[in-house]
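Usage example:
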Amino acid sequence: MTKRTQSTAFKRIWKYSPLYLMMLPGLAYLLINNYLPMLGLVIAFKDINFAKGILASDWIGLENFKFLFQTSDAYIITRNTILYNSAFIVIGLVVSVAFAILLNEIRSKFASRFYQSVIILPFLISMVLVSYLVFSMLSMETGFMNKTVLPALGIDPISWYNEPKYWPVILTLVHVWKGAGYSCIIFLAAIIGIDPEYYEAAKLDGASKWHQIRQITIPLITPVIIMLTLLQIGRIFYSDFGLFYQVPMNAGALYSTTNVIDTYVFRGLLQLGNIGMSSAAGFYQSIVGFILVLTSNYVVRKINKENALF
Amino acid sequence: MNKEARTWQWIAHIILLSFSLTCILPFILLVMSSITDETSILQHGYSFIPKQFSLSAYEYLWQQSSLIFNAYGITVLITVVGTIVSLIITSMLAYPLSRRDLPGGTFFAFFLFFSILFNGGLVPTYLVYTQLLDMKNTLWALIVPSLLLNGFYAMLMRTFFMTTIPVPVLESASIDGASEFKMYYKIVLPLSLPILATVGLFQGLAYWNDWNNGLIYVTDPQLFSLQNVLNRIMSDIQFLASNGDLSASAGDKIAQLPSETFRMAIAVIAVVPILVAYPFFQKYFVKGMTIGAVKG
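Running the assembly step on the lines above writes:
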């Protein structure tokens, strides 16, 4: 009896073997590319010695973390990561929602198409190219700012790549410039989905455009806004490595305002050869980041189950 | 149109036009810089209206062809191979997961999903690729780490298959004796061209623009993609002199190297293919962005 059920269960699964076979490359890839490094997080508790090999390296408990948190680095990179991401979330949201609302107002189809195509352009290029574009603006000797704009205003040239104080503004501008088009299109899709009857009813009641935007458009796209924002908050511990590494050109003088967790881990690993500190910072990021993802998803779930990731 | 509506039109056009300009102007500055005379740049800086035109940067580009062509070739190669392989792996993973009758489907879907939520970060990943797989300084290192760039694409495809492929079609094909593989490439793939195009575009763009893998895993200039060459010469223009065709000739040629304009010329040839191709793929691109936004 049990033998027969076993064999039918086996047959049932065997029927699906081609499907399992199809998944094999993807699952194997995930195992090596994603799951193995997750286990590899334990190296944060080891003193990595390549001569001994990774597995045979000595366990040193929390030593790496002690070193990391004794320096001011841990504080600076955490502060920078969170402050930048917070600014990006708020400013990015305001700008892209505003653009989406304005785009929706444009009557001319041609103009609307044109704007939509153009504001996506920065999203399409790599951060290396962005750093070239920024360099052509900010280069000390040849940049457009120092050679054309500032002289016209009667201001002395500024050594942009040596002055940390300007970078919070520069990086925020670059981030918004690169990303606003993308999120604008997402919000525009949400706005287009609003039933036109609402607006017609409002017009009959004599509501002004401003009123319609505040009383109809914004409330109706609020679910999308909340979801996207919460998801971004979930990723607040991760930053755009390219933005913080390429755009300031890895300039040491700027680290106080451009160093974030991702750039710190990268430099520790590949430029300073300090694997211990780097893996401790990486561990810290993975764990706190994961907790934040879970928390923000939990909040999304509370608000609207449909929109939760899981 | 009443007065209020007209005012809104004006405001909207002015704001959107100015933002559009800030999006276009840096590209124009880039192109203009590449066709300006080197000495003019050293004197007056980069400007929108060159004081003196010169194509010498592009002439140098032509002379330097071995390094640049090699890099261009690598970029094209990793883009084509990477995109195709990743589409195959992603769709082959997503299709079985979209089948509600697959035993263990929930477990595998979670296996995929958890990889999006949690990751080991740079250091362990680096060690896996360099120590375990020994991929440092190989072409593989430019392709493999980005194959399932984002497990999210596999989730996206799975949802697409679930909602667009009619189950009765698959059932009747199965009754007619079609094998699972046959159903996958004769029925599922042809019905899923929109999602394949969207994911393919995002992947292709990611490969074309990728500098990260090269920065982390590659130190051999022969394997540099265009983005890596650009990345390198920004900090080190001498890199060209020591790795290009110039090294064979006399040192005074290096002195004449129009470094400022030359950099910009390479940046131009890296960005032009994207700008040229963009109008053709814009439709799928925007569609993909909005599908992506619904979940995640």
